[in-house]
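Researcher: Let's do a round of design. I'm pasting the structure tokens now; please hold your answer until I've finished.
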């Protein structure tokens, strides 16, 4: 698929998915939706792609959410489409935001406003790197537009129900410093540096053995919010699926032989692992 409203970039084993409508604060319309579905499907199915980074073009916006002018083309309107959407048979309003089976790591490089659906896409990521001038908010509250791309479900899981309900009900906009303080942003970097930092982090992740990352993320995602016993059952299922594989045998060999990736001859650590003096 030829992309016009997003950029899909390959850097080795990293994929960058960039909202590319800076003239309208990277808002998401019907064409953007279709391109996002295609890009995320490619990332999910491509065995050579290990980490995805979401970001926005320009220096003002990560994404301001849905393109309200074209909103009628994004929202299901017929009884059949509404029923299919309710059953989870549609990917989402603003792209594949309802997909929950992407177990590869996803990083958001939040380079400006992340409002409404843009905030929801930031919450789609596992890790959020925010630039110092970034702001976050459920700004659609001002126009009586509801969240439809995971915000009511992912935001409470990230920052807790009490803080999430405040942001959802009031629509209050918060800055990067507050976002980091409440756990919405994992890290704040200077303006213009979020993508650089996200790529650096992604490169670290790519150097780690991958299978256990995938199964551990799957267990965490599938088990979150369930009774502990059910969560532990899912964890056991994921662990046992991984356990009898050549990758596990190689990992055990390296551990036993003290073949640690950060113990190289030149002394340079390969991963962001334990650093000893």
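Researcher: That's everything. Go ahead.
Model: Designed sequence:
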């Amino acid at each position: 698929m030829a992309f016009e409203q997003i950029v899909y970039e390959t850097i080795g084993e990293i994929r960058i998915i960039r909202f590319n409508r800076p003239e309208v604060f990277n808002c998401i319309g019907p064409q953007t939706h279709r391109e996002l579905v295609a890009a995320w499907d490619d990332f999910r199915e491509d065995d050579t792609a290990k980490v995805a980074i979401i970001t926005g073009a320009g220096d003002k916006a990560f994404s301001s959410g849905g393109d309200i002018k074209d909103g009628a083309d994004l929202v299901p309107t017929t009884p059949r489409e509404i029923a299919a959407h309710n059953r989870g048979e549609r990917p989402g309003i603003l792209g594949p935001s309802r997909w929950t089976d992407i177990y590869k790591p996803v990083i958001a490089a939040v380079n400006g406003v992340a409002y409404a659906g843009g905030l929801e896409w930031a919450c789609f990521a596992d890790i959020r790197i925010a630039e110092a001038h970034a702001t976050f908010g459920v700004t659609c509250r001002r126009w009586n537009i509801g969240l439809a791309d995971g915000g009511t479900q992912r935001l409470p899981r990230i920052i807790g129900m009490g803080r999430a309900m405040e942001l959802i009900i009031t629509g209050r906009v918060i800055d990067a410093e507050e976002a980091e303080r409440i756990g919405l942003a994992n890290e704040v970097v200077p303006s213009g540096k979020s993508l650089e930092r996200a790529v650096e982090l992604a490169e670290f992740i790519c150097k780690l053995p991958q299978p256990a990352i995938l199964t551990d993320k799957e267990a965490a995602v599938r088990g979150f919010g369930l009774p502990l016993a059910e969560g532990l059952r899912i964890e056991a299922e994921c662990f046992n699926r991984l356990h009898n594989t050549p990758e596990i045998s190689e990992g055990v060999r390296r551990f036993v032989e003290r073949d640690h990736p950060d113990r190289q001859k030149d002394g340079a650590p390969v991963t962001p692992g334990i650093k000893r003096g």
